[in-house]
Amino acid sequence: MKDLATGCRDVPLLRERGQREVFCGLTAIVWLHRKMQDAFFLVVGSRTCAHLLQSAAGVMIFAEPRFGTLILEETDLAGLADAHDELDREVEKLLSRRSDIRRLFLVGSCPSEVIKLDLEKAAERLSARHAPGTRVVNFSGSGIETTFTQGEDACLAAIAQGLPATEKRQLVLAGALPDVAQRQALDLLERMGVGPVAVLPTMDAGDPLAVGTNTVFALVQPFLAETHAALVRRGARHIPAAFPFGEQGTTAWLRAIAREFGVDDATFETVTAAPRDRARRAVARAAEPLSGRSLFLFPDSQLEIPLARFLTRECGMRAIEIGTPYVHRDIVGPDMELIADDPVFSEGQDVERQLDRARAACPDLTVCGLGLANPLEAEGLTTKWAIELVFTPIHFYEQAGDLAGLFSRPIRRRETLRLEMAG
């Protein structure tokens, strides 16, 4: 058993560099385009990229989405056509048809990066041409070397690099949240007297957001390493804290911000006491089937370490292995400090080796990607789809019980099936 004073922050990692099983970074567009109402995401990629986005987003035929794909044809890939000329023409057409676009993101993909299409230079050229009405920004959504949540990280880092400078004392919340969770966070901070508070990404291009040496920022997602680095380069300072999953994580996250802004203990208790109590009671009800159960997490979204902290500390589970694509200790260190047992922490993936370890451990619950879940279910393991945790509101007090329920439902389902088969 680890001492809770240090937890697992400094434990050695099992680093694996083999076959991986993850989604493409382009899928981040599915939630980002909903958070930025005046933005358009133009993927420069193949027909496969277009099919992925359409199937992931479930766009209705009559909807006019805020994303699209500029498809690279055989002549582009073979270097027989000037891709930059074609890109300029298509952007011109898009902006003439959609006057509401104030931010245009040129999103790199595996095909555009393989042929070395310089979308960064293209964004600079197009931004100068279409200013001030539309700003054009480039980021990579390629899935060659990354996992899917890094699409958001690359997008927000690109935005942060181009923000105006300010000397104003302020808090920036970095990371895209479902609207219901974002409103709760802003309400709690406002009631504590913390402010001014800005959010990255902003809903509209005209929303005020600048950054400077008097800016402090708190991450709401653990996969924002490049965004973290971009804000630090701009002079901002990170407020390290456990992530706001569950009652304990939310309280630790809020308390770190409260201390930074000089909020006294009495005010903090007044604001948080009631929602903390609701969260504790909701987690206790939903987590009953989880207590004493073993847990194995495959690397997928980079949410794994904070979720493992929640499941072990607040739901009574025992983690066997916590796999995650990347471990950034400056970001997830506070969560690692709160994991007391001795799980294996694995970074990266060699999927066949990890499958062997999971089968040997025979955990009560395995959290993994869609591609692994069905085969493991067929082998008798109980699984939880990791991607659902990205698309579902799970942050802050009011979602704490729902978060525990996402993990307890597969176990309840398995027990119900066993009883039916036995009967």
Short structural summary:
By secondary structure, the protein is an alpha/beta fold. It is 45% helix and 16% strand.
Notes on the structure:
The chain is α/β, with parallel strands linked by helices and 423 residues long. It has helices at residues 29-35, 47-57, 74-77, 83-97, 110-114, 119-130, 150-161, 179-192, 225-233, 246-260, 265-286, 304-313, 329-337, 351-361, 370-378, 388-391, 400-422; strands spanning 14-17, 39-45, 67-71, 103-108, 135-140, 170-174, 197-200, 215-219, 237-238, 294-297, 318-324, 344-349, 365-368, 383-385. The chain is globular, with a radius of gyration of 22 Å.
SSE inventory with pairings:
Layout: E1 14-17, H1 29-35, E2 39-45, H2 47-57, E3 67-71, H3 74-77, H4 83-97, E4 103-108, H5 110-114, H6 119-130, E5 135-140, H7 150-161, E6 170-174, H8 179-192, E7 197-200, E8 215-219, H9 225-233, E9 237-238, H10 246-260, H11 265-286, E10 294-297, H12 304-313, E11 318-324, H13 329-337, E12 344-349, H14 351-361, E13 365-368, H15 370-378, E14 383-385, H16 388-391, H17 400-422
Parallel strand pairs: 1-12, 2-3, 2-4, 4-5, 6-7, 6-8, 8-9, 10-11, 10-13, 11-12, 13-14
